[in-house]
Recover the amino acids of this structure.
């Protein structure tokens, strides 16, 4: 079964600690440690574009059609400013996603928080342009967006917890280098090749 790619704005992880052994050490705390190559910090999760566009169309009772919402959203994403690479640090692992995901709790510079806030503000502007009313309610109820809380927790998902009880685990402090922000699965956006 082919999975439809999710669209996110993310900062890719370039390195964790002083090398692979520092990352592999996290395997003492989590099951199925993810491969370092795909690690990233999600700055904004949009979800599957068709689902997001359908959510907009349903919310506006068809005033904004799904195809138009998809085109507008694709153009909006590709105009977003790029966040330069940065360094963060982690001193603990936390559980996320209802206890299904174990992630590094990352301390990031203030300008990264400000950039993430600017993405949410830009999302509000996009939705206003798509004629969505009660935008905060829409964001928290959209199945595609999947926001469970208005609060952003900077993290890097690294595997699944060893226990189902959640919690946090202190780890040796790690410096994490991030590359500049990018749109994950950009190639699947309408008009991305133009």
């Amino acid at each position: 079964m082919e999975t439809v790619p999710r669209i996110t704005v993310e900062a890719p992880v370039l390195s964790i600690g002083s090398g692979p052994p520092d990352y592999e050490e996290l395997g003492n705390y989590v099951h199925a440690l993810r491969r370092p190559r795909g690690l990233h910090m999600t700055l904004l999760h949009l979800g599957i574009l068709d689902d997001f566009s359908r959510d907009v169309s349903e919310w506006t009772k068809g005033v904004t059609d799904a195809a138009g919402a998809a085109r507008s959203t694709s153009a909006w994403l590709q105009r977003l400013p790029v966040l330069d690479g940065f360094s963060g640090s982690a001193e603990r692992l936390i559980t996320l996603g209802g206890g299904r995901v174990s992630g590094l709790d990352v301390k990031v510079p203030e300008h990264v928080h400000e950039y993430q806030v600017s993405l949410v503000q830009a999302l509000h502007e996009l939705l206003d342009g798509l004629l969505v009313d009660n935008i905060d309610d829409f964001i928290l109820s959209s199945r595609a967006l999947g926001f469970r809380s208005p609060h952003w927790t900077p993290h890097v998902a690294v595997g699944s917890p060893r226990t189902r009880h959640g919690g946090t685990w202190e780890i040796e402090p790690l410096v994490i280098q991030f590359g500049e922000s990018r749109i994950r699965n950009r190639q699947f956006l309408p008009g991305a090749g133009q």
Summary: The CA atoms of residues 9 and 44 lie 5 Å apart. The domain at 7-188 is CATH 3.90.1140 (Cyclic Phosphodiesterase; Chain: A,). Strands lie at 7-16, 30-31, 40-47, 86-96, 101-107, 155-161, 168-178, 182-184. The chain has one domain: 7-188.
